[in-house]
Automatic annotation (TrEMBL):
Subunit record text: Associates with the pre-60S ribosomal particle.
Domain Large ribosomal subunit protein uL10-like insertion residue range list: 81-121
Pfam families: Ribosomal_L10, RL10P_insert
Chief site of localization: cytoplasm
Family the UniProt entry places it in: Belongs to the universal ribosomal protein uL10 family.
Function: Ribosomal protein P0 is the functional equivalent of E.coli protein L10. Component of the ribosome assembly machinery. Nuclear paralog of the ribosomal protein P0, it binds pre-60S subunits at an early stage of assembly in the nucleolus, and is replaced by P0 in cytoplasmic pre-60S subunits and mature 80S ribosomes.
Localization in the cell: Cytoplasm; Nucleus, Nucleolus
Alphabetical keyword list: Cytoplasm, Nucleus, Ribosome biogenesis
Cellular component GO terms, alphabetical: cytoplasm; nucleolus; preribosome, large subunit precursor
Alphabetical list of InterPro entries matching this protein: Mrt4, Ribosomal_uL10, Ribosomal_uL10-like_insert, Ribosomal_uL10-like_insert_sf, Ribosomal_uL10-like_sf, Ribosome_Assembly_uL10
Stated name of the protein: Ribosome assembly factor mrt4
GO biological process, one term: rRNA processing
């Protein structure tokens, strides 16, 4: 989680003179924006609420649209996948000894559907 926070902090630092980034859960963000014209902070702001799903982030900036789109195209952070992520590459394990895995991994590999056998407990 620290890496994710660091990448976001780097982005915030890069944009601090021109922009603000707000992160919050869906309900908190909807309350902040307003869910209807009656409770919105500025006219039309409640319309954003319907686009929010899960944890959301909003970028408020005075940068031109082209600059923002370029910035996000160029901003990339490699990170470990979390459970439920879609794989970006195929990993093939050939039959035979799997030296890259310790014997403690056997139950996990078996649970993933791999036919696994320990040789002499190793």
């Amino acid at each position: 989680n620290n890496m994710r926070n660091q990448k976001l902090k780097d982005l915030r630092d890069q944009l601090k003179s021109s922009s603000r980034i707000f992160l919050a859960g869906k309900k908190v963000m909807q309350i902040a924006l307003g869910r209807s014209p009656a409770d919105e902070a500025k006219t039309g702001l409640h319309k954003l609420s319907k686009f929010l799903q899960g944890a959301s982030g909003l970028l408020f900036t005075n940068l031109p649209r082209d600059d923002v789109e370029r910035l996000f195209r160029e901003f990339e952070a490699n990170d470990f996948a979390r459970t439920g992520s879609i794989a970006t590459q195929t990993v093939e394990l050939k039959e035979g000894p799997l030296e890259q895995f310790s014997h403690e991994m056997e139950p996990f590999l078996r649970k993933q559907g791999l036919p696994v056998r320990l040789n002499k407990g190793l």
